[in-house]
Amino acid sequence: MAIPNNSIRELLQLMDLEVLEDNLFRGESRDIGTPRVFGGQVLAQSIIAASHTLDEGTLHSLHAYFLRAGDPESPIVYDVDRNRDGRSFKARRVVAIQHGRPIFTMAASFQIDQEGLDHQFDMPDVPLPDELQSELDLSQDHLEQIPTFLRRWYMRTGPFDFRPVQGVDVFNLNKRPPFSDIWFRLSTPIEAPDLMHRALLAYASDFHLVGTATLPHGISFLQGNVTMASLDHAMWFHRTVRVDDWLLYSCDSPSTSGGRGLARGLIYDAAGRLVASVAQEGMIRVTDQSADGSKS
């Protein structure tokens, strides 16, 4: 299924923040069919807000917490604190505010480019994206199995093309080891600086990651009795990246306990270069549901 260019333009427009005052910015939200703002959007916009307060430096790491669900119908204000401007590293703290309350916080570090030691894990040996089916190729029969309140989210036409290696059927789940691999890319090439590609990589990294923690339990967020939400997000950028080229997201989940699931991800480009690492903990709640679909 082809993805229309207007969805990509819409995503890039979300990254074009309005300057309100020194260190203060405002961004709009994109409705992806959920009652709350997509966490990856707030993450990416926070990166852009922080970058507007820098003269130089490349984003190399971030640590963020999702505090409250965002309202997709209202703008978000980003307040940036210039924590430190050193000779090699620059630190920023961003607070995303909506309706007078913080919904998200992020600490980010930027580095002046320099040479150093170099090594990485090898990329997993998996099928190439051209050999795999896109998530967008979903049959009408499957759509009818999705709860009504989630159907619009699953039918969304987003700017990214995701192609799962394992081809998990989210409608007929079996318990399996907590490992998953998925290829993804922005469906149309874009002309954008390195910082924008890193921000959009952060946006895409919030898809699919914490879902890895559900695999050993044979459950899915598409079930009416499963509630999931991102709690935090950490990311390290190792090398230059282009999100309009194919990238492999190799994920695992070492533990789920206490209503939370931990997931980790390594992102490789098609040449096998490790471009980023990700870690995220998410809330995972399963409620009892009777045969007639009502919760007990």
Describe this structure in words.
- This protein has one domain: Porin (Beta Barrel), CATH 2.40.160.210.
- Mean pLDDT is 88; it is low at 290-296.
- It has 5 helices and 13 strands.
- By secondary structure, it is an alpha+beta fold.
- The longest helix is centred in the first third of the chain and has 13 residues, at 39-51.
- A hairpin with a 2-residue loop joins strand 1 (18-21) and strand 2 (24-27).
List the defining traits of the structure above:
single chain; 296 residues; alpha+beta; Porin; 13-stranded antiparallel sheet; 5 helices; 16% helix; globular; disordered C terminus
Secondary-structure blueprint:
Blueprint: H1 5-14, E1 18-21, E2 24-27, H2 39-51, E3 58-66, E4 76-85, E5 89-98, E6 101-111, H3 140-143, H4 148-154, E7 160-164, E8 179-186, H5 194-205, E9 226-230, E10 232-237, E11 247-257, E12 260-269, E13 274-286
Antiparallel strand pairs: 1-2, 2-4, 3-6, 3-10, 4-5, 5-6, 7-8, 8-11, 9-13, 10-13, 11-12, 12-13
Helix pairs in contact: 2-5
